[in-house]
């Protein structure tokens, strides 16, 4: 299981952006995180930028995969469904549970979630 932003584990942050131009303010080769945005995802994919999309619905998950997202950041309410779909359809991207709670490590492990992105692992641009 992958863990980003946990205090005991060194990891590169995800850079939360609002518009494509914010990418210029991030570190080279970093992972870009944004709310679900088709246009931004298309630009990132075309430029071969590693990106994560915060998806709130299963439809967004399916589209995020088709748009080439490397990571699908989800909340607990859709995490189980998202992981099952990602496994069934052999998504290349990984499902990450967005969390502030260390106890979610056990939840994610028991349910086969690919990883956790703790909110402390996100830098806002």
Note down, in words, how this protein is organized.
The protein is an alpha/beta fold. The chain has one domain (2-20, 28-124): Aldolase class I (TIM Barrel, Alpha-Beta Barrel). The protein has helices at 38-46, 58-66, 76-88, 104-110, and strands spanning 2-4, 14-16, 31-35, 51-54, 71-74, 94-99, 115-118, 122-124. An eight-stranded parallel beta sheet has the order 1-7-6-5-4-3-2-8, with helices on one face. The longest helix is centred in the middle third of the chain and has 13 residues, at 76-88. It is globular. The relative contact order is 0.22.
Outline of the structure:
The chain is α/β, with parallel strands linked by helices and 125 residues long. Helices cover 30% and strands 26% of the residues.
């Amino acid at each position: 299981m992958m863990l980003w932003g946990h205090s005991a584990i060194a990891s590169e942050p995800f850079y939360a952006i609002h518009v494509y131009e914010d990418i210029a303010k991030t570190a080279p080769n970093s992972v870009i995180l944004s709310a679900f945005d088709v246009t931004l995802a298309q630009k990132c994919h075309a430029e071969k930028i590693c990106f994560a999309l915060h998806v709130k619905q299963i439809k967004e998950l399916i589209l995020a995969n088709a748009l080439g997202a490397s990571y699908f950041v989800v909340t607990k309410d859709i995490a189980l469904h998202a992981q099952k779909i990602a496994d069934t359809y052999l998504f290349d991207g990984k499902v990450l549970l967005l969390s502030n709670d260390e106890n979610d490590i056990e939840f994610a492990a028991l349910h086969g979630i690919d990883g956790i992105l703790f909110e402390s692992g996100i830098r806002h641009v």
